[in-house]
What does this fold into?
Amino acid sequence: MADLKEIVGFLNRVPLFQGLNRHQIERLARGLVPRDYTAGQAIVTQGKGGEGFFIVVSGQAEAVRERADGTSVVVNTFGPTDFFGEMALLDDGLRTASVVATAATQCLVLTRWDFLAVLKEDVDMAITVLQELAKRFRMALDAL
It folds into this structure.
């Protein structure tokens, strides 16, 4: 997915961005970088630094959290238009889970510094995205 028009069309289907207008989505699209992963390949690793936010374009992945006792549990699965790593957009903390491709997977990646630069230029976009992120955190907490 290299064409800006194609990326914008895809981003319109991503729940996090549905409250944004076309101009705002185009600005975000310019900062996205496509990355491909093979089945079994780690996309992010629990305990490591976060480089940014990932949107699944195609394929499948699962989030796996390693517990203190050494056991692992699958905490989420991802397919097209799903996203993960949103906490890395807001702080530079460590990854809370590993995400592993379970099939050949393509993601669009947005780095924290690119995301923050866009938000600094558009306060309305910042409010819309942060409200959507808050809804997602609330749903995650309600599921516990």
Remarks:
- The chain has five helices and eight strands.
